């Protein structure tokens, strides 16, 4: 199933990474992407949601096993790690992804960071300063709920810095992400693509449920008025910062079950490509076995 609408006679890609990847150097038009689509999900009889939930659950054991191998490899000096970057409009599912997808992993091997408005201390430094402090260590899986891209998104829409500075930041981000890749970080950048109407429904659902009022901010309504400006800002970020070493992936997010399945699949494909291995023992296994069987002497 194609990512964009309509897409005729498009060959089926080898992986979801290829299907959802934003091509390097090409213009991005988010209106050409179907936020309710299910690209790459195996065709079958309805209900698709039930099949998607089951398929995501089945990936849990494989994901956990690969995470353990990645961490184990780090104990022998393997510096590789993975960083999942989540960006999207309010209600697109960044928090839901952390709960339902990252919940498949062992939390002790994950480093989760949600970036809010910069603090007074953070504003004294380069916009990348706080990002660098939150990076995963070798063997870990890092998750960014928002990221360095806020400094070319809200900063652009709200005109917090001059446009010339925004233009320079794209290049700085690309160089930063290239340095991460050179140091063994696999960067998986996901844009959660939600439609304007679906966001309205989710915000109304929060208002209808008193238990969700804590998640609602009246300022979200003001942000909706800036929807076209945010779409343009995202298009520019996707266009200028989807590179060979750190590509962007557009994940349709109107269907929560598909969002979770797609991101789980992307993580699985990236971890399988890394193929981390358990390190060999640096001690005499047979000697230790003999000692234990002989009374530990």
Describe the fold and architecture.
The longest helix is centred in the first third of the chain and has 27 residues, at 48-74. The protein has twelve helices and five strands. It has a five-stranded parallel β-sheet with strand order 2-3-1-4-5, with helices on both faces. Helix 2 (48-74) runs parallel beside helix 11, helix 6 (150-157) runs antiparallel to helix 7 and helix 6 (150-157) packs antiparallel against helix 10. The relative contact order is 0.20. It has 297 residues and is α/β, with parallel strands linked by helices. The model is unreliable at 5-12 (pLDDT under 50). It starts with 15 loop residues before the first helix and ends with a helix.
Key descriptive features of the protein:
alpha/beta; 5-stranded parallel β-sheet; globular; about 45% helix
| Largest sheet properties | 5 strands, parallel
Structural class: alpha/beta
Count of runs of 4 or more consecutive helical residues: 12
Number of strands: 5
Low-confidence stretches: 5-12
- Strand order within the widest sheet? 2-3-1-4-5
**Mean pLDDT, as a whole number?**
93
Gyration radius from CA atoms, angstroms: 21 Å
Strand proportion: 5-15%
User: Order of SSEs, N→C?
Assistant: HHEHEHHEHHEHHHEHH
Quick take:
The chain has 297 residues and is of the alpha/beta class. It has helices at 16-20, 48-74, 94-100, 120-123, 129-133, 150-157, 163-182, 196-208, 219-224, 227-241, 256-274, 285-293, and strands at residues 81-88, 110-114, 141-145, 185-193, 248-252.
């Amino acid at each position: 199933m194609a990512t964009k609408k309509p897409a005729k006679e498009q060959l089926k890609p080898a992986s979801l990474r290829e299907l959802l990847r934003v091509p390097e150097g090409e213009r991005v038009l988010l209106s050409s992407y179907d936020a309710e689509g299910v690209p790459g999900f195996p065709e079958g009889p309805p209900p698709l949601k039930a099949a998607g939930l089951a398929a995501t659950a089945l990936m849990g054991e494989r994901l956990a096993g690969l995470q353990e191998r990645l961490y184990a490899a780090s104990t022998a000096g393997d510096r590789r790690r993975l960083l999942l970057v989540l960006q999207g409009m309010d209600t697109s599912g960044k928090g839901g992804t952390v709960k339902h997808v990252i919940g498949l992993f062992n939390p002790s091997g994950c480093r989760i960071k949600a970036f809010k408005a910069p603090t007074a201390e953070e504003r004294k430094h380069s916009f990348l300063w706080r990002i660098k402090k939150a990076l995963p260590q070798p063997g870990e899986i890092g998750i960014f709920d928002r990221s360095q891209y806020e400094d070319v998104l809200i900063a652009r829409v709200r005109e917090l810095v001059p446009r010339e500075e925004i233009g320079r930041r794209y290049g700085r981000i690309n160089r930063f992400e290239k340095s991460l890749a050179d140091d063994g970080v696999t960067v998986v950048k996901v844009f959660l693509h939600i439609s304007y109407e679906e966001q309205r429904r989710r915000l109304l659902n929060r208002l209808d449920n008193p238990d969700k009022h804590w998640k609602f901010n009246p300022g979200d309504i003001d942000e909706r008025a800036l929807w076209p400006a945010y779409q343009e800002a995202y298009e520019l970020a996707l266009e200028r910062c989807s590179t060979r070493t750190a590509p962007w992936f557009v994940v349709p997010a109107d269907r929560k079950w598909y969002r979770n399945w797609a991101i789980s699949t992307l993580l699985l494909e990236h971890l399988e490509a890394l193929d981390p291995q358990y390190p060999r023992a640096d001690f005499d296994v047979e000697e230790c076995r003999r000692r234990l069987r002989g009374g530990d002497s």
